[in-house]
């Protein structure tokens, strides 16, 4: 009891103290499980024995004792328990035969276990990886852009057209369109929020609808769809984010266009977008330094008043009769600032040395011309960058990120230019690293606990052979549900480390006690298998059925957490099947090795029936 409880605590305690985003997710989870397991052990040592003393098992009542009348409920429960008892007995007989064969053919059993483990390792890349699975909360969004320079009225007209297309879907309840909001500032950016009917009332998922929606929106002229579907549930951005960094903006734009052409060919990569946009039309004002210096004017003296005249300046606020407050912005009227000729005639007051004021026109000290300018300039780590983002459809984000890395490495970036991933790809690599650290700590703690409980350095290795045998079940379960290795499925794997050792502890502990009473090793193992099969089945089935609602994502948005339940179910099933056969065989090898080490060290052989230990 103590060994199984401490094994579970050894797994969940590192989970509760992981760092990074994954630690923020599972801190309360790990601490709660540790506290619950500790309390359950206290209850099992106190309340359960007390209840057992006053709540007798009817099957062992004396035959002459008076019984209460049998009800229909009792008959129904009796049939179920009788069916379970019969099935358990048949399963126990079959298990005894399999285990007896395995104890005779130890080498074949171990080789088959190794083959299963190696096969599962080669199957892991087939799963794909992602940071957090998408969750269907019956809502989605669509973002698009109109050509640079489009008016607000033109963008609004396109937004209404897109909304009408979206509302043709029977799953849509309502839509809300916004322009020039959030991070997508400008008259040519639009975002549409889409609310769907509840998941149980529709046949298609959000991902399936997004694919159809992209195809229909391609037929709308004059827009570029930058996003359709679900955003990353952690950062609220697209699943794929990376950037190209370097010193020169023009070279960055060239490299970005070159990369975008190759990235579009990657399967599963959709909604590809970058911060490089078509240059926007601007009016360039180039100061004539000679003329300006002769008049005593500097660039700052021209830029300040020019900004106020053209862009405007807030000088106060005005409260309307309806108690609404509006900013008061002072600038030239549109008919005085829309043409270059108007800008050239803008007056600037110049104080002369004699105290008089002289008026200078902008055209006298600067050259005004039509030009174009960059729409957006990003900087990171003291250098310029171009941000690229995209969504993933029908493929794992990790696989798509690997293809992107291959494409970018093939570009042969000039010296001083580099690319780096961010967003969920970066979070995924960071979280997997912390999860592996927690897994390593859990395995070490489990070994230390088992070594102290069984007073042996070798026998815990036999018990821990159950750990790698969970991998094949995890892989098969995730493939069956078409899930990936994500933050939640990795946590499920770590959980398995504490759960699967429990069965091995129950089995081996009984065998050790039987051997201490003088029973032969193989006979003790067969007896342990017969006696401990029922509690092992009960705990295994309890874990499986407890994880079924989570694994099948029965509630809205539970798709995000479902891989954790799927990994636990698959790992528990296969580990239970393999552990009951492989662990006794490895236990025999460890026991033989312990006896050999004692003989080689010149120590007295272990007492018959006792478990040898290697100090």
What is the gyration radius calculated from CA atoms?
36 Å
CATH class of the largest domain: Mainly Alpha
What CATH calls the topology of the largest domain is Multidrug efflux transporter AcrB transmembrane fold
How many structural domains? 3
Largest sheet: 5 strands, antiparallel
Morphology: elongated
* Coarse structural class: alpha+beta
The CATH superfamily of the largest domain is Multidrug efflux transporter AcrB transmembrane domain
Number of helices: 18
What is the CATH architecture descriptor of the largest domain? Up-down Bundle
Low-confidence stretches: 607-615
Compute the separation of the termini in Å. 25 Å
Strands, total number: 15
Query: Which percent bin holds the helix content?
Result: 40-55%
Beta-strand level of the residues, as a percent range?
Answer: 15-25%
Return the average pLDDT rounded to an integer: 84
